[in-house]
Design brief:
single chain, 187 residues, alpha/beta, Rossmann fold
Length: 187
């Protein structure tokens, strides 16, 4: 059976996917390869795609949007894949940052962080957070309500609680892409 190799921008993203994917896709064979930020990821994409010798591997590149234009980020990543002569790579851009996916599943966030401030649920359910993909620096919004929050700890905890019922459109697009790839590799 084919496996998916996720090239991700940082260790916290790998931590989250390492916990999330087996829960949502139990039959999926995968490996996460974390990088030290966006520049490291982008430098390594062409090299890794050309050098990987394991037969039947499919690649998924995942990177935060941050403040950049989403379409430009995706076009750049697709271009890097083409440099390696690979057009079969799934490229996904997390709208704003990974923590937007956490804000998109408030129930999961409260389960993962029971020590959140008493009014955290009410604050993070305000209108400005209802579309989590538009929240600028959602990690700061979470840290205000959960002072103990740290990226890697958050990733590990959230991996155990995130559900498919998530308001983040980029999370839904990510899951749909993985479902499509899983269906293709099972054929």
């Amino acid at each position: 059976m084919t496996k998916l190799v996720f090239l991700v921008e940082e260790p916290s993203m790998a931590d989250m996917l390492d916990g999330l994917l087996p829960r949502l896709f139990p039959a999926l064979r995968f490996q996460c390869v974390p990088h030290d930020g966006k520049q490291d990821l982008e430098r390594s994409i062409p090299r890794k795609l050309r050098a990987w010798r394991e037969p039947g591997v499919r690649f998924v590149v995942v990177r935060d949007q941050d403040s950049a234009d989403c379409r430009q980020v995706k076009a750049r990543l697709v271009g890097l894949c083409r440099q390696a002569r690979r057009t079969d790579v799934l490229v996904r851009v997390v709208c704003r940052e990974l923590e937007a996916w956490y804000v998109g599943d408030l129930e999961a966030l409260m389960q993962a962080f029971p020590e959140a401030r008493p009014h955290a649920r009410r604050e993070l359910n305000r209108a400005r957070y209802r579309n989590p993909d538009t929240v600028v620096q959602p990690s700061r919004a979470i840290a205000k309500q959960i002072p103990e929050f740290q990226k890697r700890l958050g990733a590990r905890r959230m991996a155990n609680h995130l559900s498919r019922e998530n308001r983040s459109h980029s999370f839904q697009v990510f899951l749909a892409g993985i479902e499509r790839l899983q269906a293709q590799v099972e054929l």
